[in-house]
Design goal:
alpha/beta; 4-stranded mixed β-sheet; 37% helix; binds iron/sulfur cluster
Length: 452
């Protein structure tokens, strides 16, 4: 049998979870085709195209992709959705030291008198950036930031941290730019009805550090000033033996879930992600899917699942020689497909052009994915880790790409509740769903709004 190699570092790390099952590939595929709920063993068989051999069997892989594509068509039909959004990340200052991350800059660089290649924004700067984007028709702002030592939930939190000397705290007066508090940043970005998508579980943990405040109270307070939904990033791989290797200072899997449940319990929609293709194996990937499926059973709040293929260049994991590559294309295809088949309670699976590029991202829309991400007027995180795929896709770009594969382009709101089928011949080829969206293309050069 001619099997394709994978970049899964099996045996390189001393993990308890191994991709071994007593299930067969054929049984697992039969269950997937019939719509029966999959077990972890089923998922591992599909993801590996059979654990009895090393590598990926090309013919079996095609059968898994076909089953996932058929399921996608049954669940969401032929529409491919995208959202019109802006990334406004507040700061790259972070001392957490995750080994997969090259977004961060050591927070000491941001102190007065030091130099940094990174950035921090005041709430006023965030407001100006979002206001300009909303005037252009953008209706979602996504904001994910480093854990700046001066960032706290609110003024009361700053007083507690100052009185107790931490943890991971330094007063804003030590830094050239004061990022304000999380409440001030969210309030600043809450412009004219834009949807503010922010405060990952890791950021929520930072926003309650040194206190006994609940995640519910943190999310409720942020919701009161405009937070509308929560990105389920910082999930990486929800198996602690993997987190202990790649992000030992981050919250553990159980706490990530607790934060997500809290967000859902106060009425916020959430997304969920997986970042794969580094030190983990296929068993970890499927256990992660299992935890996400269970979380969805408990909350019903997950609007989409976003597989993120690890971009290894410029990251400490690569610099330390712990990884030499990311996932192969075949592993990417199977990750999307098994996500679709395993997560039978999550409607939308995203293909990220930032991670996969346009051509391969489109291919993944035939492997189980149905959402093609967002316009993203600025994308700093992947670019800083060596991503190559640029910063912006217009509505016209989306329409051309999606119709080229014979599918239907649909502009959507963040929560997928509002949709507009875009007519490639009749347009308009600009956003229509936002508070100030009137179909004008995003880059058509509208006048910037006056300062407050
Ligand atoms: S992933 Fe987030 S928490 Fe980890 S080092 Fe990067 S910015 Fe900091």
């Amino acid at each position: 049998m001619n099997r394709l190699p994978t970049n899964v570092p099996r045996g390189r790390f001393d993990f308890e979870h191994l991709p071994e099952t007593d299930q067969s590939f054929e049984n697992a595929l039969a269950k997937a085709r019939s719509g029966e709920r999959l077990t972890v063993a089923d998922g591992v068989e599909l993801l590996t195209t059979g654990t009895e051999f090393e590598g990926i069997d090309p013919a079996r892989k095609e059968r898994v992709l076909e089953a996932a594509d058929r399921r996608r068509a049954e669940v969401v039909g032929e529409e491919v959705t995208f959202v019109v959004n802006l990334n406004n990340n507040v700061t790259t200052a972070c001392n957490t030291g995750c080994l997969f991350c090259n977004f961060k800059d050591p927070a000491g660089e941001f102190e007065r008198g030091n130099e940094t290649r990174g950035f921090s924004k005041t709430p006023g700067e965030s407001r100006r950036i979002v206001r300009d984007a909303v005037a252009r028709g953008v209706y979602e702002v996504t904001s994910v930031s480093g854990l700046h030592p001066a960032l706290a939930l609110n003024d009361e939190h700053l007083e507690i941290l100052a009185a107790n000397g931490g943890p991971n705290y330094k007063p804003a007066s030590a830094y050239r730019v004061d990022p304000g508090t999380y409440v001030e940043q969210i309030e600043a970005m809450n412009v004219d009805g834009v949807h503010v998508h922010s405060m990952t579980p890791e950021e929520a943990a930072h926003a309650r550090r040194g206190t006994d405040w609940s995640y519910e109270s943190v999310y409720r307070e942020l919701m009161d000033v405009g937070l509308a939904s929560v990105p389920g990033t910082a999930a990486e791989i929800l198996v602690d033996e993997v987190r202990d290797v790649i992000c030992p200072q981050k919250i553990d899997s159980a706490e990530w879930e607790a934060a997500m449940e809290a967000a859902a319990s106060v009425g916020l929609d959430v997304t969920a992600t997986i970042m794969y293709g580094h030190v983990e194996n296929e068993m970890h990937r499927v256990v992660h899917l299992d935890r996400v499926r269970d979380l969805q059973e408990r909350t019903g709040a997950i609007t989409e699942f976003v597989p993120l293929s690890f971009v290894h260049r410029n990251t400490p994991l690569a610099e330390k020689g712990m990884v030499t590559d990311g996932a192969t294309r075949e592993e990417d295809e199977l990750m999307i497909a098994v996500s679709r088949l395993y997560l039978d309670n999550v409607e939308n699976v995203q293909s990220s052009w930032v991670k996969y590029g346009d051509a391969f991202g489109l291919k993944l829309l035939s492997c189980g994915a149905n959402d093609f991400m967002g316009t993203i007027l600025s994308e700093e995180i992947t670019k800083r880790a060596g991503g190559e795929y640029g910063e912006f896709r217009s509505v016209r770009d989306y329409v051309e790409m999606i119709t080229a594969i014979g599918r239907i382009p649909v502009e959507r709101s963040t929560d997928y509740r509002e949709r507009r089928v875009v007519d490639p011949d009749g347009g308009p080829l600009g956003p229509m769903l936002g508070p100030k969206a009137d179909g004008t293309p995003l880059t058509a050069g509208r006048p910037a709004p006056a300062d407050d």
